[in-house]
């Protein structure tokens, strides 16, 4: 089971990775001679002179950044503060990577990140932020704030970011109220990760462009009727490790043909919710299901019409292989992985 899970996850990652570059391979591959304007503690490769690599050097301060740098790698250091003026030479910076430092929100001085009007990627995971930095550039396409201490996320934080495609907010302390209105009006948002927070509901007002919504490990008890239907592009929905009960799942809420993967594992469901025939991966392990209701998965089973399910996980429920109705195999003919225990 485990390798399968890894495989699926790997598939997903590669699906998303195409939009990203190898920013997290911080160090250039070979020891390189730096361009003359580069500061001593960093490297600016001759063949990529707009990049400055300062990652993993125990830096306590942001070093001097010479004019012309567009890609700045400062991850894995001991930086506590973003002092006034540090980015004055590089207000057209495109990527800023600050992951794995110890920056608090009150130590981000104004006239720094807020002056980077061309910023496209801001990677600020695993710091000590209690609120998002900003105001951020409208040209942002990717924002990563994983593993901070965010308790608030003001509704205007992302407004007007027409090219924003990915927002990662997992491992914070955000509530449904603190995210109210945060995603309204975003035209290009494809991936939103709000897992490992304190949400009681799926985030409100998310745009119809969304392809992937990850809300695992929250406190979600119910999903409102029509929530998924308002997201006509949604393919991956993950709500595992929440508190979903049957009464919180309105009839047909997952019955939409765009969905390819639905993860409802580690909840408190007693029945298999109705899904669309187009669904390919359904995770229901570790719930309280005691009846295999074939009608939830197969509505019009016939020789020419069958479920597209490839994976169905039902382990950790009150079900065994013998719970499966005899006619299930006809409908579930594409399912190479049906796991009961
Ligand atoms: C800006 O660049 C100049 C010349 O490279 C340098 O002397 C100065 O210290 C830089 N300022 C900052 C804030 O990095
Ligand atoms: C969004 O991207 C387009 C195309 O690259 C660009 O012309 C536009 O200025 C960008 N929008 C913002 C707000 O930066
Ligand atoms: C589920 O969707 C199908 C068409 O895709 C529709 O015929 C059916 O009525 C829907 N069921 C519910 C409960 O909405
Ligand atoms: C196949 O299933 C769809 C619903 O998903 C239904 O509308 C259609 O009539 C079925 N076709 C056949 C030939 O059974
Ligand atoms: C588990 O399933 C068996 C057989 O279907 C049933 O008799 C029993 O009541 C179920 N237990 C629970 C806790 O649902």
UniProtKB/TrEMBL annotation:
UniProt entry keywords in alphabetical sequence: Disulfide bond, Extracellular matrix, Glycoprotein, Leucine-rich repeat, Proteoglycan, Repeat, Secreted, Signal, Sulfation
PROSITE patterns, sorted: LRR
Keyword field contains Transferase: no
Compartment(s): Secreted, Extracellular space, Extracellular matrix
Ranges of residues in domain LRRNT: 37-71
Signal peptide (UniProt feature, chain positions): 1-18
InterPro entries: Leu-rich_rpt, Leu-rich_rpt_typical-subtyp, LRR_dom_sf, LRRNT, SLRP
Keyword Electron transport: no
One GO CC term on file: extracellular space
Highest taxon, organism lineage: Eukaryota
Subunit and interaction comment: Binds to laminin.
Entry-linked PANTHER family: AGAP008170-PA (PTHR45712), LUMICAN (PTHR45712:SF6)
Family affiliation: Belongs to the small leucine-rich proteoglycan (SLRP) family. SLRP class II subfamily.
The name this protein goes by in its record: Lumican
Source organism of this protein record: Astyanax mexicanus
């Amino acid at each position: 089971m485990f390798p399968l899970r890894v495989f699926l996850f790997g598939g997903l990652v590669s699906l998303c990775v195409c939009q990203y570059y190898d920013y997290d391979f911080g160090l250039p591959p070979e020891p390189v001679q730096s361009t003359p304007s580069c500061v001593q503690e960093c490297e600016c490769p001759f063949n990529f002179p707009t990049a400055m690599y300062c990652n993993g050097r125990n830096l306590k301060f942001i070093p001097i950044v010479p004019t012309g740098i567009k890609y700045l790698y400062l991850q894995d250091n001991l930086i506590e503060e973003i002092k006034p003026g540090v980015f004055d030479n590089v207000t057209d910076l495109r990527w800023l990577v600050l992951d794995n430092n110890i920056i608090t929100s009150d130590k981000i001085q104004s006239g720094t990140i807020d002056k980077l009007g061309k910023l496209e990627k801001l990677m600020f995971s695993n710091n000590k932020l209690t609120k998002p930095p900003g105001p951020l550039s409208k040209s942002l396409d990717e924002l990563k704030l994983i593993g901070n201490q965010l308790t608030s996320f003001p509704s205007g934080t992302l407004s007007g970011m027409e090219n924003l495609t990915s927002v990662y907010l997992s491992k914070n302390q955000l509530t449904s109220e603190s995210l109210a209105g945060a995603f309204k009006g975003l035209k290009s948002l494809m991936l939103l990760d709000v897992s490992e927070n304190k949400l009681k509901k799926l985030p409100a007002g998310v745009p119809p462009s969304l392809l992937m919504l990850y809300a695992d490990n929250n406190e979600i008890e119910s999903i409102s009727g029509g929530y998924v239907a308002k997201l006509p592009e949604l393919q991956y929905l993950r709500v595992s490790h929440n508190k979903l009960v049957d009464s919180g799942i309105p009839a047909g809420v997952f019955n939409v043909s765009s969905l390819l993967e639905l993860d409802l594992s580690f909840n408190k469901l007693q029945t298999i919710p109705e899904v669309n025939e187009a669904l390919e991966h359904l995770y229901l392990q570790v719930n309280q299901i005691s009846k295999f209701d074939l009608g939830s998965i197969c509505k019009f089973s016939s020789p020419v019409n069958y479920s597209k399910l490839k994976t169905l996980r039902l382990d950790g429920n009150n079900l065994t292989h013998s719970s499966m109705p005899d006619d299930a195999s006809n409908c579930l003919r594409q399912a190479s992985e049906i796991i009961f225990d």
